[in-house]
Specification:
There is one protein chain. Helices cover about 65% and strands about 5% of the residues. Strands 1-2 form a two-stranded antiparallel sheet. A two-stranded antiparallel ribbon has the order 3-4. The longest helix is centred in the C-terminal third of the chain and has 31 residues. The chain is mainly alpha-helical. The radius of gyration is 27 Å and the shape is flat. β3 and β4 form a beta hairpin.
Length: about 210
Amino acid sequence: MNSPFDPINKSIAKQTQEINGVLITPVDTIKYLGTYLTSELSRRDTIKARCKQAIRNAKGLIPFIKKTKMHWKIAKLIYKMVISPSMTYGLNVVALTKSNRTRLRQYEREILKDMLQAARNQPKLKTQEILEGKTITKIIKIYYNREKSWTSYLYMGRLLRQDLNYHNRNQDEWDTLAQNKMEMKKAADELYQLPETDTESSAPSEENEE
C-alpha cells in the first residue's frame, strides 16, 4: 500500500473531492473558531495570531492607561482580564512546543512591561513576581491538566459501568451502596474478586433481564 507521503497520493490529496454532492477543495491551513488547523498540526499560526491580537489590544489600552494615570496594580488587573485571555484562547487543548512557550513568554513580558510603564508607580519586579506566579504558560498548563483530569474521570466512569454490566449490577444499586462506605467497600471487594469462570458461566436471571 502506498504511503500517504508518496508523490501520487500527495497529488491526489491536492485535488478537489466531491462528497455527498459537496465539492471540497484541500487547503494547507484552515481557520476555525479563532484557531488555525494545519495538516501537520502545527500551532505556529495559532500562536502568531494570538500574539498579534494581544498586541492590538494592548496598543488600544496603553493610551487610556497614560491618560487616566492609573496605578500599576489596576493596569495589571486589566492585563489579566483583557490581554491574557486573548493570548490563551484556544491554547488549552493543544500541546505547545518549547519554542511556542518561549514566544508566548516573550510577548507577555513585553506587553506587560509597556502597560506598566504607562501606569503610575511601576514596580521593579520580574514578570513572574508581578503576576504572582500566574504567568501565561502556567495558566495554559493548568488548563491542559484539567482537560486531562476530566478525560481520566470519564474513562474511569466508563470502566466502572463496564464492570457493573459485566457482573450483572446496575448503577442504581451502586448509588444505594455508595451511601454506606462499609457496604460499598464490601460490594467492591466482591465485585473485583469474583472468578472469571463463574461470571462467564452464570446466565443473567430473569429479574435482571427485565
